[in-house]
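Q: Got a minute? One more chain.
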Amino acid sequence: MSGVRTRARIRRHRRVRKRVRGSASRPRLAVFRSNRYIYAQVIDDDAGRTLAAASSQEEQLRSATLTAATAATVGTLIAARAAAAGVTDVVFDRGGHPFHGRVKALADSAREAGLEF
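A: Always. Here it is, folded:
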């Protein structure tokens, strides 16, 4: 965490997390994006439990390069797994990343697959 950009992203994420909190009725959809992969988790902050998770490191996506299309596939996966866990409403936590590109593609595909936020 020595880079200036990383420290700035963490500072933005902390600022967002002051307001965004997941609960049992409306958990948090947290997104983390690295240069090679993208991860999404549906988290109940009250209980401290991850209800569903998906990432581009999974077997069928591991060989794919991280593009908006790959991120959209992860968004569809997380929406399906959240629905299986009984979750339909979430609050979106962009993890300090700007809401465009791969993060936006993940969010849009999760919305299309049935998650509401």
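A: The beta strands are 28-33, 38-44, 49-55, 91-93.
Q: Perfect, thanks.
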